[in-house]
Each structure stands twice: as structure tokens, then as C-alpha cells.
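anyone else get weird line breaks when pasting these?? whatever heres mine. first is seq + C-alpha cells for prot A
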Amino acid sequence: MTSLISGRDASARALGQHPARDRSWPAGPVRLVGVLVALVLGGLALGAAPAQASTNGAMVTLGDSVASGMHCACTPFPQQYAAQVARGTGRAVRMTNLAFPGATSVDVLAQVARTSVQSTVRASGTALVMIGANDFEYAFQGVLAHQRRAYVAFPRVAARVQANVTQVVRTLQRLHPGIRVVVADYWNVMRDGKVGLRSYGAWGESKAVQATTYANQGLAHAASATGATLVSTYTAFKGSRGTVDPTALLAADGDHPNARGHAVIAAAFLRAARTG
């Protein structure tokens, strides 16, 4: 999906994406938050922002339904972020949003191997990465059904996410030496807020929090290993202690951000761009 801010996204199929799952599946909440990669190239500074936040007007986003804007009835946060960069620099910014619903870390790893996607990456200079929550769906459903133990199932998934995201980031760095990569974590890899509590009960919601902790640890390790910057949507949505109810930032499904939530995520990426 490509847009010139102000503009909109082009077809994902044109860039080699496959049809994706909807995380509102009856079988369970497929967490479609995943790798978000917004790649920015060039020479614009965001006010007092350092060079890491610069762009020649080209960005790309890799991710899942959250990054694609599913159920938000709003401008998704990648486009909001691009618009904020454009306002801060006074120059046009082109956003290519390759996010698609249902994406897992495996899907994004395959995506960055495609020629069309690689061409987009080579034309970009900063990568924001957010992927991996959908990877936890199968394990989470098994834990809810008391068929798997969380302390066994979740670390295995987290290790896979960590390995895949590390490889994704290194692929981006190989395709564009010097590219800046920003990896985002998650407020929850499953449903959250009041909807999550109704869906899973208190015990099930505690397991969703546990899965999220493992996911975020894996993403943090991937960011550290590759020299990427880590952005915490967990902190943005729930506070540093994780005690804030994020319901007001979520759509009716309790799984995707609403318009306010997307604005909060865009602001978190912008802060990361300004602080490095």
C-alpha cells in the first residue's frame, strides 16, 4: 500500500502479499499485531530530531492488521506517523504500507524475501518493526483449554518470534546498509481491556498477559541483538507498571486499536524518532 501524505494505500496484492486471516476468527482472537516496519530514507530532521529520524520522503511499513488499520475506522498509525514527519519537516513523505491482517513473524520473514518488497526496502532508510503476536494464537488457545502449560508453550513461541524478527531486521540491514530499524512491542498479544476480561475471564486474561510478557522479551532481545531501537506500545497503552486499563484505546473487538489508539502508537514512534 502506497500513499503520498496526504494519500492512501495501494493494493497489498500488487506487492506479493497473500490473503490473510482475520483475527476476529471464532476460533480465537488472532492477534494481528505484528511486525511493523516503517522505513524512512534521507535527510529530513523532525524539528530538534536527530538524523535517525530523517527521511527522503520514502517509508515502508511491514506488519499485520493493527498496522493495516483493521477495525479502527481511521487513518492507521503508519500513515499518521508519516504525516507527522511531513509536518515536522515541511516535505512530502511517501508511505508504502505492506501490513496485512493475520501476519505472523514467519509471514514477514517470507515477505522480505520477495523482490518487490526488497526494492521498496532498498529505497527506504528507517525501519519500524512490529510483528509476532499472531504467532502466539495456537499456544494461547491450548493453554486456555488446559492442553498446554504456559511456562512451556509460550517460551517456545517467543524464541521463534525472536529468531524470525532478528532475521527480518538483519535482512533489512543487508538490503540497505545503514538503515535504522525500530522494533515495537505489544500492549497485549490477545484481546485486552473489558473485552479481554469478558472473553477469557480473569485467569485467561492473566495468561494473555503472560504470553505478552514472553513476546515482548523476545522482541526486546531481537532489537538488542541487531542494534534496533525498541518502542513500547505496552507502556504507551498500559503505563510503565502495566496497570492502566487500555479499553479506551481499543476498538469494539478488544483486539485492535481504535482511532485514539492509533494516534497513541504514532506518537510513540515519533518520540522514538526524536530521541533515537
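and prot B, same format (seq, then C-alpha cells)
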Amino acid sequence: MKMNALHKWTFKTRFRSRAYGWRASALGAKRLKEAVREIKKAAKSDPVLAGDGVVTLLERIWPSFQDIDTSSGTLGGAVNHTLDELIPVLVDAPADLRTRQKWMDRLYEALVEDGVDYLSSVEDRWGDICAFPELANHWADHMIPAVREGWENHRKGAWVVGATLCLSCLVKTERYQELQGLLSLQSAQAWHFGKFWAEALARQGQVDEAIAYAEGCRSVPYCNYDQITRFCERILLEAGRRAESYHRYGLVAAAATTNLAVFKETARKYPEQEPRQVLLDLIKARGDKGKWFAAAKDAGFRHDHLRPVPVMPVDRCAQPKTIGKEHFVFSEQEQPGLILLFLNRKGPGYARIAGVRPASGGLSPKRLPDLLHPIVGDLLAPLLNPGQQPAVIPGNNP
């Protein structure tokens, strides 16, 4: 499939060498989002053109961003998100062998010039981006001598540009013995390189061995625990072992900025699990039970979904603002007698009671016994006395 060679990319004018200054992290992230939208729009009508646009953008990332202060992590996160969005576009583009070869040559030059390893994800997916086995074999043969020389002469962690792209190509072409031979030159079972052997084991159907190898990489300093967890979850899902994946890794694999997002991602990935049970399993697996109050409310659950949550002091419970919002959602008839108590230990104590609309400014602790269901009336003493252990609603222990 031929692409439109006359197409002009708008983003090219915004990604020029040294186009951004020291404090341009936010602007750079914005320009990346615009470029992703432009490329994805082109992919709908001309996927080969979109693939060429991805290569063009990746070539320009380091030259454009080299003067930006990246200490905040904003720009690095934006680049990683961009690669996650665009690498599949590049992999799926129906380009011929000659076009692919040109793309790979251009990408390799960009990798060599990359000053802060922005394109590490491209290296990791190099074999998939090659698409053609003969092209992946070419790059593996080209890089093996340099990688072997670097790792043999500097056994304890020499850095060789293109090492991971070489390993990726060996996995793609199923040259597993050569892959194992190269990795044996490493003095430690580091996940950065070991993930390719774990992937090779999984592709050979050795799922349990792949998981055991990945778990072994956790003992190496500075390993990426989250990547290992997500890898193990993925290969178990691909093997059809969904229940095991859910209980071993699924509850801790989701990465999001809020508990609500974590819950939604987990529930979406495991639709066979009942949402209420997913929420309770997440609370048990991740802790900070009071922090899940808002997630449960926003997800549309009633109070009874939080019944395993103990009545806790302020430092382990939801914030007053969150609890206050809840009382304008549920009426007095919905959950009578089931309470969530919040005590402000920095000032006059007050409580918010599920199913009761408190007066402005909260309720005095002295009035609580008159408002509580008898089953929880004796729970006040431990909370009002910080020296005693927090109590749990009887019959609902986690």
C-alpha cells in the first residue's frame, strides 16, 4: 500500500530542534497530544501515511525537547503515553518491506541521538515494529556482535545502545538459544533485559516457568515491580487462567490516579467478576479502607457495600468533605442503623451518620447514643477514647 507523499504534517512545524525552553514541559505535553490526534486521524484513511507520521514525530522528540527541564516527570510521562498510543499504529501499518527498512533506519538514528532514553519503548518493541521476520533477523544479526562484545568485556552492567532492540528481534524470530546465550553474559537477572527471556518462555507455552523467572527478577535492586506484575497478569490472561490472574495480580496491577479509576479498570478487565466483590477484593488487597468510600459512592454502590469497613479514627477514615457529600445522596430510609463515623481529633468532635442528615456544623458526640442503632451503641467508647482499639461492626469483620 502506497502512502500520500504530498501530505503535510501540521505537527512538524511545532517540533523543531531546540524549539522549547527550560520551562516548557506543559507545552511540550500539549503538542504531543495534538500530534497524536493528527496521526490517528490520518490512520483512518491512510495507515501507511500514519506510520510514516509516527516515525517523523519520534525523530523529532529529542531534538525538540532537549532543552526542557524534565525533573518533574510531566514530559516523560507524556512521551510514554504518546508511545503507548502510536507504536500500535506503526506496527499495524501495512507497509512493504522496503518502506519498513527505511523506517527502521530512521528510527535507529533517532535512538542513537536520543539523549535521555525517550524512545526506550521503541527499542523494546523493535521486533514487532520490524513486522517482517527477515527484517528482524537483519537487525538481530547486525546488533549481536556489539552486544556480545560490550557484555563480555564489561560483565557488570555495560550499557550498549541497541541491546534491547537486539533482544526484541531474537524473541520475534524465535531465536531463543541465542537470546539465552546473550543474557547469560549478564551478572544479574535484571528485569530490563530479563523480560525478553520471560516473554520467550511464555511464547513457548511455559507459563509457570515464565512467571517464576519474572518473580525472581524482583530480588534485583531497582527492578520495576509494576511492570513485572502487569507482565504476569497478561500472560496468565493469554493462557486463559483468568481466575488465577485476578487473584494473584489483577487486584494490584491497575495503575491509576484515583481509587475509582482503579476499580473501573479492574472491573472492566474482569467482567466475569461481580462488581461488588471486585470492590471488596480491592479494599482487602490495597488497604486504606476508608479511602475507598468515595470510589464506592461514585461507582453507584450503597452503604452495604462498605459494611466490612471498620469504624475508624480520623487518620484512617474518609475525609469530612467526602462523608458530608454522601448524606445528601442517601435518604433516611435507605440504610437506617448503618453508620460511618468520623471524629475530628484536632477540634470539637462530630459525626456523620449514614441515613441521618446532621445539622450544620455536625453533631455533638454526646448526642450520638440517641441516634445510633442499638447494635452499634457500644462502639462509641473505643473511638472517643484514643487509648482503645477501634471497633468493628459485629458480624461484618473483613
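btw re prot B: Residues 133-153 form the longest helix (21 residues). The chain is about 55% helix and 0% strand.
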